[in-house]
Amino acid sequence: MRRIGLLGGMSWESSALYYTAVNEGVRERLGGLHSADLVMVSVDFAEVERLQAEGEWERAGELLAAEAVRLEAAGAECVVLCTNTMHKVADRIQAAVGIPLLHLADVTAEAVRDAGVTTVALLGTRFTMRESFYRDRLASHGLEVLAPPPGVQAELDRIIYDELVLGIVDERSRAVYREAIADLVRAGAAGVVLGCTEIELLVRPEDSPVPTFQTTALHAAAAVRFALAEG
């Protein structure tokens, strides 16, 4: 079994989902008492969020790249960056290590295409929805990507940072997400990418009239396939 390196803490709530999903995936495939061979570093999200807010992406990339180097030194054979938003600095992280970074947008796009979907709604933080680093990566796989209008983006982002990263699940916020999804489906989306790991704490499959693509679960499954050399 190859050793997985989890780069988490953004937030720890979603990183806990990664840890569980990876171990459950290994046990499902190997049975018995098997669990994943992994190492994990969990950063202080308050520092990362401050760098995001101040637009200090180069510094954020340096911080996470240094942590990826620590994972490689601990024997990790791949890096799994346990956050959608910080894939903005994925290239900086990959350049710092000699092991592959399993890019979340690539994993997600593969699942979307396998489902026969070509137009997807993208929900996430304001950075993920508004900027090109994630949308263009999805589009490079032949997908059309729709995002909510700016005002809706602001409210979805607020729910993530003010509630979900703190483990708060509010039915009123679920209703906001349901309405955003419905609007994007009316605009032509045939699937919904939950492009922030914390959104999976709130949005359930039954909250969408079209398939949802849970990026945490998809990313964790890709890590398991890598660890077990499946494909």
Overview of this protein structure:
α3 runs parallel beside α4, α5 (104-114) packs parallel to α7 (132-139) and α8 (150-162) runs antiparallel to α9. This protein has helices at 12-30, 45-53, 57-73, 90-96, 104-114, 126-130, 132-139, 150-162, 171-186, 215-227; strands at 4-8, 38-42, 78-81, 119-123, 144-146, 191-194, 212-214. The protein is built from ten helices and seven strands. It has a four-stranded parallel β-sheet with strand order 5-4-6-7, sandwiched between helices. The protein starts with a strand and ends with a helix. The model has no long low-confidence stretch (mean pLDDT 95). The longest helix is centred in the N-terminal third of the chain and has 19 residues, at 12-30. The protein is an alpha/beta fold and 231 residues long. The radius of gyration is 17 Å and the shape is globular. 51% of the residues lie in helices and 13% in strands.
If helices are DSSP runs of H or I spanning 4 or more residues, what is the number of helices?
A: 10
Helix content: 40-55%
Instruction: Write out the strand line-up for the largest beta sheet, numbering strands in chain order.
Output: 5-4-6-7
Strand tally: 7
* Gyration radius over CA: 17 Å
Principal-axis shape: globular
Name the average pLDDT.
95
- The N- and C-terminal alpha carbons lie at a distance of 14 Å
Task: Give the SSE order as H and E letters.
Answer: EHEHHEHHEHHEHHEEH
The major pleated sheet works out as: 4 strands, parallel
Question: What portion of the residues fall into strands of 2 or more residues?
Answer: 5-15%
Backbone structural class: alpha/beta
Low-confidence stretches: none
